[in-house]
């Protein structure tokens, strides 16, 4: 998506969009050889930036911190899911062992 189109979609000026692109470069994705084309992913992230700045009232620095906080939270959630999957696998194995043991006891 071209900057002008995105600016219209976000209801901001192209200068504001360029400023956000500079300030939030770590967060945005670009497409193709032209650095000015935004991928759908980049568009969605610009919507997040606008939401944080305009709707939630964050400053640019505050929005950056919030984005980093959310990214860290996402990483913590991924780690927790991985740990829960390990526990689930262990419990399923334990359940199978107990079932096998009960089967042996009934056969005696």
Automatic annotation (TrEMBL):
Which InterPro entries does the UniProt entry name for this protein?
DNA-bd_dom_put_sf, MerR-type_HTH_dom
Cite the HTH merR-type domain residue spans from the record. 1-65
Coiled-coil spans in chain: none
Which molecular function term from Gene Ontology is one that the record holds? DNA binding
One BP term from GO: regulation of DNA-templated transcription
Q: What is this protein called?
A: Putative transcriptional regulator
């Amino acid at each position: 998506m071209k900057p002008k189109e995105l600016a219209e979609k976000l209801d901001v000026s192209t200068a504001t969009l360029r400023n956000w692109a500079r300030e939030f470069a770590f967060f945005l994705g670009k497409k193709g050889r032209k650095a000015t084309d935004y991928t759908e992913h980049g568009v969605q992230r610009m919507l997040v930036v606008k939401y944080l700045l305009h709707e939630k009232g964050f400053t640019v620095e505050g929005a950056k911190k919030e984005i980093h906080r959310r990214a860290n939270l996402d990483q913590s959630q991924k780690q927790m899911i991985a740990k829960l999957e390990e526990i689930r696998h262990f419990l399923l194995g334990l359940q199978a062992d107990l079932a096998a043991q009960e089967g042996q006891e009934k056969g005696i």
